Amino acid sequence: MPALADQADPPLADSYHALLRAGNGIAPAPATESLAVLEQDLPMIDLSRLSSGDAKEREACADAMARAASEWGFFQVTGHGVGRALLEEMRREQARLFRLPFDAKAKAGLLNGSYRWGNPTATSLRQLSWSEAFHVPLASISGEDCDYGKLCSLRGVMQEVANAMSRVADTVAATLAESLGHRPGGPTAFPAGCDGTTCFLRLNRYPACPFAPETYGLVPHTDSDFLTILCQDHVGGLQLMKDSRWVAVKPRADALIVNIGDLFQAWSNNRYKSVEHKVVANSKAERFSVAYFLCPSNDSPVGTCGEPSPYNPFTFGEYRRKVQDDVKRTGKKIGLPNFLKLSTVDGQK
Known about the structure:
Elements: H1 12-22, E1 38-40, E2 44-46, H2 55-71, E3 74-78, H3 84-98, H4 102-107, H5 110-113, E4 115-117, E5 132-137, H6 138-141, H7 154-179, E6 200-206, E7 216-221, E8 227-232, E9 238-242, E10 245-249, E11 256-260, H8 262-267, E12 277-280, E13 287-294, H9 316-330
Parallel strand pairs: 1-10, 2-3
Antiparallel strand pairs: 3-11, 4-5, 5-6, 6-13, 7-12, 8-11, 8-13, 9-10, 9-12
Helix pairs in contact: 2-7, 3-7
EC number: 1.14.11.13
Protein name: gibberellin 2beta-dioxygenase
Domain Fe2OG dioxygenase: 195-296
């Protein structure tokens, strides 16, 4: 058996067995909850309609987007301008990156030390994510001190993908904000504090899991940003909560997935929904995805589209710190309920 340093996969099985022993050898209920899972297409939005010369066509597209953000919190977009050839090149670069020995990924400071795997704070199997990722701040992608090792072409591809997804995120965010009465070019920009240095690009890999379907690829969560733009491969595994049931998202080769984050739900006074979602592990095939997170600077106030807001004022930095504290203290994210004016979290009134 090769040494761990020569293996590409992180020691996820070791984590699984350690958590299994800690739980007295009792495996969790299946992550798929197959009897309750529906497979559906998300609402589909053609972004090219926003450039139509017909005002009614543009309005219909914006209305469909706002409705999907309110009813689903997720939707798919076509006509987004991100070329398939570029996304396929990104997939090839991802595969090369994740094929590196685990030791090189975890300890060599690759991509500014942005590598992560599993869940170091997990105390049970229900908190273990069978995945690995590079969660890279956009500010560091083009930085001279960002180490790409021998993957010379990775930097350029990542930068191009980040730029393309940034344009999609800006278009979607501006359209959704305008649907709530925010006017572009007004006294305050939206989203406040977001630029090319504050957002993130995350490269994900979900190795085939011999313990599926008992294991999550990514544990249930909501995103702590304004918007997420996701490109997933053909394998599938993404599920979201809709009407108290899990819905499996059918992969579409020509579509990107957009989901509302916690900050947008707060800014919209709960008009748009940041919904719980997860990735289910696959026993036979590995899965790749790339996600762009539209985030502000840590000192940026999240604000509101109009008063009264159900939330107390908070900055992105305050929100992130509270999420981290909750995970350390309880093992899970609490998120927006912490900031409700009438919050009952931890007995607060």
